[in-house]
Amino acid sequence: MHRLDITKARRLAVRAQMLDSERPVDLLSTVERLTFLQIDPTAAVAPSADLVAWSRLGDRYHTDDLKRAVEEDRTIYEQNALLRPIDDLRLYLADMEAWPLHEQARDWLAVNEPFRRDVLDLLDSSGPLLSRDIPDTSVQPWQSTGWTNTRNVTQMLEFLARQGEVAVAGRRGRQRIWDVAERVYPPGIVAVPTEEAHRIRDERRLRALGIARSNLPQQPIEPYHVGEAGEAATVEGVDGEWRVDPELLDLPFQGRTALLSPFDRLIHDRGRTEDLFGFEYILEMYKPETQRRWGYFALPILHHDRLVGKLDARADRKAGVFGVRAIHEDLPFDAKTRSGVHTEIERLASWLDLELVGI
Questions:
Q1: Could you give the angle at the alpha carbon of 93 between the alpha carbons of 69 and 47, nearest 5°?
Q2: Is residue 178 part of a domain?
Q3: What is the extent of the structural domain holding 221?
Q4: Residues 214, 80: one domain?
Q5: What is the pTM of this model?
Q6: How many domains does the chain have?
Q7: H helices within the chain, ranges in order?
Q8: Does the pLDDT at position 145 exceed 90?
């Protein structure tokens, strides 16, 4: 049982996410270490996947790098709003072969078998295509209480992607371009058996997080828990048991200042963030403006091993400016912290190729 003080636990988390002073050198190795980049269409500052990559790589990263990796080099693939290294596809193929697990999806696919064949035949002969270019020949519409209700073509494509029969070949703006999987995924990938694949995924998730809980409630996109990966640990002043990657425990730590996406993996598990960093964060874009404390798309601010505040800023590309509305200090900034935060804001504006105003 490892017994960590809170500072060591924080540094373990920060280092694992490549947010210490030793920056990674290229996009693919970054995604391999993080295991994925999450896609979110909100671009109040920049799309989340780009922000996460920039916060690690700095000016080495250009948004064209990600597009090229997905659409030309095929070193990264997209599925279920996540971008993963193509080498990890083998860890998900067994789950794809077993999908769907839920009766509603199975029944809908069964009754819509002619529709499924129509989609696959059209993509095979005419793909890659946008979803709007695929006719809806469904026998029975998809029923849902959410936004997917009767969106039959999109739902069929999503389901076929979950089964590994189609894949996202790229994007045109925010719209996905679809094709048959054999023209997107490299040939000869062998599925890792389910149990082994889940074990490896837990181990890689722990390596990316550094410290995590063993079991947590299921998450809709990517779990926060890591099963029995790593070794057991406790953290001073925090209840319960954790799992840690022992290979990261004794590495030296040198911090830096970083501006994070609201979807950044360091802070995405809000319970873990409060336990380890004492940091409260809620994405307020869905709240009425009068109820926001920190801003529409406030960026958490990391300084060394502490989350010290939030940056309320917006990128106005039409006006060519990056406007800072407020810098919220959760912990009072000393001169060194303030200088680091201002420098990072200037770097972000420069990377966005926008004039910085409001600071």
A1: 35
A2: yes
A3: 2-46+56-87+198-248
A4: yes
A5: 0.94
A6: 3
A7: 6-16, 27-34, 48-57, 63-68, 93-98, 103-111, 113-126, 152-162, 194-209, 265-268, 270-277, 335-352
A8: no
